[in-house]
Amino acid sequence: VQTCALPISVRYCRDWRIMLRAVSQPTTVTPVVPAFSAYLSTNQAISANVETKVSCDTVEFNIGGGYISALFRFQPSTAGYYQFNVTGRGNGTTVTAVWFVLRKNNVNVGRLMESATANGSNAGSMLIFLNGTDYVELFGLVNAASAPIFDADVAGGANAPRFSACLVRQA
Predict the structure, then answer these.
(1) How many C-beta neighbours within 10 Å does residue 88 have?
(2) Which of 42, 66, 75 has its CA nearest to residue 56?
(3) Cα end-to-end distance, the chain, whole Å
């Protein structure tokens, strides 16, 4: 007895026996799981006490093409639950607060981290449902007397603002 992969075609012979013939080779379909990681490559000057979009301009990977680097936003076409991860650091003169937030469709959905000092590295994560047309962006704030920046920590170093996400469960 021989086995064959579907799809198959069926032919009837003159003596009423059935012959099976494989039509094509079996294929394996690997689903694309949307995921990305991007970081800020150079210091970003910002206004004090104003939530500002973080320009994560260097893309480490972008599986599924959901991260739009020109807009610094993640907009996957697959609906589901996404795990977002953020690290970051702010700096300036007399810093009293630094925080980062995620915005879904330009609405704050959660402050991920806050620090009361300059050069404090922060990290946070959040699970967010996206419907296939939603987008998420990273914003931050540095409360400083002067010269506030999102600190790239020497060209995308370990403490530079990083923004990443991956699909955890499809809707």
Answers:
(1) 29
(2) 42
(3) 42
Q: Do 98 and 120 contact (CB within 8 A), yes or no?
A: yes
User: Distance between CA 148 and CA 99 in Å, rounded?
Assistant: 12
Note whether 44 and 139 are within 8 A (CB): no
Q: How many CB atoms lie within 10 A of CB 35?
A: 19
With b meaning 16 or more CB within 10 Å and e meaning fewer, what string describes 119-128? ebebebebeb
HSE of 49, CA atoms in CB hemisphere, 13 A? 5
162 — pLDDT class (breaks 50, 70, 90): very high
Predicted TM-score (pTM) of the model is 0.80
